[in-house]
Each structure stands twice: as C-alpha cells, then as structure tokens.
Design a protein that fits this description.
Distance between the termini: 45 Å
Number of strands: 12
Shape: elongated
Number of domains: 2
Largest sheet: 6 strands, antiparallel, barrel
CATH architecture of the largest domain: Beta Barrel
Helix content: under 10%
Number of helices: 2
CATH topology of the largest domain: Elongation Factor Tu (Ef-tu), domain 3
Radius of gyration: 20 Å
Order of helices and strands: EEEEEHEEEEEEEH
Amino acid sequence: MRKEDCFYLGKIVSKYSFKGEVLVKLDTDDPEIYENMESVFVSLGNNLVPFFIKRCRLHKSDLLRIDFEEVKSESDADRIMRSALYLPLTQLPKLTGDKFYYHEVIGFDMVDAVHGNIGVIQSINDTTAQALFEVQKEDKQLLIPMNDDIITKVDRDNKTIYVRTPEGLVELYLS
C-alpha cells in the first residue's frame, strides 16, 4: 500500500500496558467510527506495514486504545512508538453537503460570487493558523481562507466550490 492511496488516521502517542497496548491520538472529528477496526497500516521507515488488531476501543473520548496482534510486550510497543497510522482512502466515510476532505477538492474550480471563476484549487495549506485554498489562475496563485462563511456551495458533480470572498481579496491577487 502506498501513502498516496491512504489517509492519515493518527499517531501512537504512548504505551498503555505492559502487554503492548498503545494509545493513538486520532486526527478525526468522529473517533467512534474507528472503534472496531480489524487492521491499520503503521508507518515504519519508508514503508506502510499492515498490523492486525485484536481489540480497539475509545479511551477518554479522543484516544484509541489498541491491542495489536503483533505487539505483545512493552519493548514491541517501544518499536512502534510515535509511528503514524494510515487507512486506505476507500475507508473514508462519505461526506455530503458542504463538508469535504482536503484531498477530495484538489483540481476543483473555484467560483467567486463577484469575480466568477478565479482558478483551480492546487492544494490546501493547513500549516497556517487558518487553512487556505491555494488556487492557481494562469500565472498567479491566490490564497483563499477556508472558512464556512466564505464557502457557499460544494458541487461534487461539477467539481466546483462556490465562494463569496471578502471584498478586495481577489483584486489583491489579480490586479
């Protein structure tokens, strides 16, 4: 399995027991949907290695307590500590309405209520305090805040996101 075909689920943050159980900090708004997984991919070096799960359950609401079949001791758990966990993209729950996954909207057109088509979404920059759409319009790159107040509609069928950008923002880039 390649990382490009997977989504980041979370990271192993600590050991839970001397029998090798670990706690995973999940990167999701709905941790309960991952309670009954049978397996995950663990990032070890440059590889994604499948690990099978004996038992997993929520721990204090935002952590997942996992007992892997292959991890039977504290030293086994130490070997996978701080590793990232991945699942295939096919296992992502489907989103509807104006909710979307970042990878899902790459390549979508962005249409502004005032300026019309302002370009194609090239990527999402989520390393800043506010996530930004990186939109390419010919030789110019526009940075559009990803915000519920700005996004008016997500049209998956036509691969278009409709926005109402703050006054002056688009002019800043295109003039």
